[in-house]
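Internal ticket #5521
Category: modeling
Description: The requester needs a full-assembly model to guide mutagenesis choices. All entity lines are attached below as received. Residue total reported by intake: 233.
Assigned to: D.W.
Attached entities:
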Amino acid sequence: AQTVTQSQPEMSVQEAETVTLSCTYDTSESNYYLFWYKQPPSRQMILVIRQEAYKQQNATENRFSVNFQKAAKSFSLKISDSQLGDTAMYFCAFMKRSGAGSYQLTFGKGTKLSVIP
Amino acid sequence: DSGVTQTPKHLITATGQRVTLRCSPRSGDLSVYWYQQSLDQGLQFLIQYYNGEERAKGNILERFSAQQFPDLHSELNLSSLELGDSALYFCASSSSVGTGFIGEAFFGQGTRLTVV
């Protein structure tokens, strides 16, 4: 079974600063997908960024970027120029193929990020 | 708007009762996932369906069951409800085109279940 570990239950960062959230995963698969989801107080699950394991280049979405280390099974999220609206719970997620056309999606326990004015 | 619709948004019911949560996936998505999120907790995977067939089971209680219908919508049935079943229940869907890249899972807004 795949496991996803987020070792930082809570973090805080000053507005406009940079913060990095950690995620490690355990799998024997070679093809899979990794995601960071954001859950603000509204509880809506919002995709922040995704990474295909076969791509060596790290994904970037505006102020959000990842450091994907496949050999180390590490997938960290960097948030630059933190904004108050970034305050949320962040979940790392792993997705792998589980059968013909279907995929299994596993989440870490989350990191609660607070952006301080 | 993710394109995934969950109804109802809120549900209050008494212990011992049975409820049905409904999920309509994004148009064309064949996979549906159900997750349970208790207060300040992560997402616990319950069950996954793909094109009408059960594909994976997580920590789903025997009192809970689900199905996916031919039109691809899914229902999660919770019976003999207990106070501890109070949670936010999410449905998500993802697409699949042959063996190609399927993209991310899109989440509905969740159904907040309160058992009193």
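Resolution: model delivered.
Comment from assignee: Chain B touches chain A through 30 residues (CB under 8 Å).
Ticket closed.
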